[in-house]
Structures are given as C-alpha cells and as structure tokens.
Amino acid sequence: MLGFISARQAGLDDPGRLRRAEATRSMLSGGSDGVIVLYDLENLSRKPSYTCKALCSVGRSHPDVHRFSVETVQWYPHDTGMFTSSSFDKTLKIWDTNTLQPADVFHFEGTVYSHHMSPVATKHCLIAVGTKSPKVQLCDLKSGSCSHILQGHRQEVLAVSWSPRHEYVLATASADNRVKLWDVRRASGCLRTLDQHNEEKSKATSEAAGTAHNGRVNGLCYTNDGLHLLTIGTDDRMRLWNSSTGENTLVNYGKVCNESRKGLKFTVSCGCSPEFAFVPYGSTIAVYTVFTGELITMLRGHYSTVDCCVFQPNFQELYSGSKDCNILAWIPALREPVPDDVSEKSLPQQHLNPAYEDAWSSSDDEG
Fold first, then answer.
1. What mean pLDDT comes out for the span 224-235?
2. What are the WD repeat spans here (predicted)?
C-alpha cells in the first residue's frame, strides 16, 4: 500500500491511469445495496436532457463488494487512480480504479457513518472516520493502520470533514449534540467545542452548555475557503460558524427539516455570488443563501427522500441522490444576453435558453 501511494505522489505510476480523468468527467456513487458505480458525466449527445452511462461497477457478484449500504465514496484527492468507500458493513475500503480491486481494507467495531480525506493535505495521508463509537478514527494510508484516535465525543460520530484551509484541522459532528474542531498534531487533540450560545451561560441550560444543536448533529460542510462551517442537526436547525473563532454567526435559516437517522450529506456552492447551501429536504432540495439564510427555492425532481447532494465547482453542477434510485444533475438556468434597449420584464418566457429551461426549477415556477 505504501508503494502504491508513494508512486502516485512521485508521479512514477502508469500515466495511463490518469488518462481517464483527462478524457472524461467521472462520478462515483454508492448504493444502499452495497454496489459502487462509476459514471461518465460527459454529455456527448448535447441534448438538454440525457442519461449518463455507467463505465464500470463493483456489483453484487464482485467478491469484495460491500455487504451493506455504502455511506460515503470519495476519490483520492490527488488523482482518480484510487478511491475510497465506507459502509454499514463496518469497513473502509481503498480501491484501485483500474482493476476495481481493494488495495487495503480497514475494519471497525461498529457501523461506519462517514469518512473524509483532506483535499489540501501534503504532509499526511490520514482518512478521518466517524463510526458508531464516540472515538474518531484516523486511518493512515501510508502505514495501513488506524494510527490515531480522537477522544472527546460521548456518542456515535455521524459526520467528519477536514478543513479545506488547514490540512491538520478536522471537524466532527456527533449524536451527543456537539461539534468539535481538532488539530490532529496536538496531544490533546480538541481545539474547541462549538457552542450555539457563544458561551453565554445565561442563555444555556446545563444540558445545552457546549452544544452546537439541541439534537443529534448529523451534517457538516465547510465553505470552499474554509473560513466558515455549516452544521445541521435533528433539531431542524442549520447553523453557520466562524471556523477560526468558533463563533455562532446567528444566521437564521428558519426550520431546516432533518429526519435522517444517519449522516445527512449536504453541500455548498463554489464560485457563485452569493454562495448557496443545498440541503436535502424530504424529496426536494432546499437552496439557501449561506450568509443571509434566505430560502431561495426548492428543487423538485425526485420521487422519494433525497439522501445526499454534492456540488461540482468546475462545471457549476449539483448532483443529488435519492431513495428513488435516481441521481439527478442540476445546472443553473442561464439566460441569453438581453439587448440594452429591451426591458427584461417585456421579454417572453422562451427568451430563457431552452437548454436550461427546466434545470433549476422552483415551486413558484411550477405553480
């Protein structure tokens, strides 16, 4: 395993492994049946609506397929020659993309809810893993062992996320209502525990002291610059935190329905003005402005509960997965240039570029 990683970092591995990343736009997906599928996202038909082709899969007949639901899949951050997957079958697997064979497998005592590799790390190859145990596991790809444990949570860890700004800083969310920030280099580990009341004891009951939410915290997402952290809890609240000071910014998003009994995977845009948060909300996706809390629209298209969202910044695309067994791609509605001497209000509806007409629909548009 160490040789596999070293060769990739040193650029000594077969260049053909990178060819797929250059030639195609690919996406990993993991299903409740344990199957992993790799899709080609390229729209060769140039039609507004199209179906992505599956390139390959780790199917039910594969000897190393996950036995239960796949909760997280992630490409190796430096190239797509390797990817990772974790599952309710208590394992984290490291896969060679070309052979679709596991290069390594990490076993845990309890269900795995979430894992994450740092997108910016250059000095470590640690995978943070949240499981049914209150201990956060750090698996080292170079040594092939779970070399570090972060202790501080009191219940299962439902979500983990490395900072996109500081490679040693990790955020974790737990069923104990708490969110912790860690510096994995420190012996004590924990930098701070986020407090929804900003440590104003007059506002906090003894039970709520030092808690981020009044319910299980099952979702975490950093803004792209790493300056802020969004959290979601089963108290139907979403909160925005200053990741440097740990301060609750008190942005009010209203009721953010969250009935998930496991990790809720939501996402934040990158390169938009303003930036948006995309949050699974029943069979829809709620779109909020990150820094003002305004509910912009509800994206409708799925027929059952939406489990996850991911934003692709290079192409400004949103992908959502649902229990209806569909993955939908969403693109922002683009309007054709309006002549200077024409009022926008006087334009007919068809002035909207027809290729994007139904891509970014809202409840108001559909009524």
1. 97
2. 63-105, 150-185, 210-251, 299-330
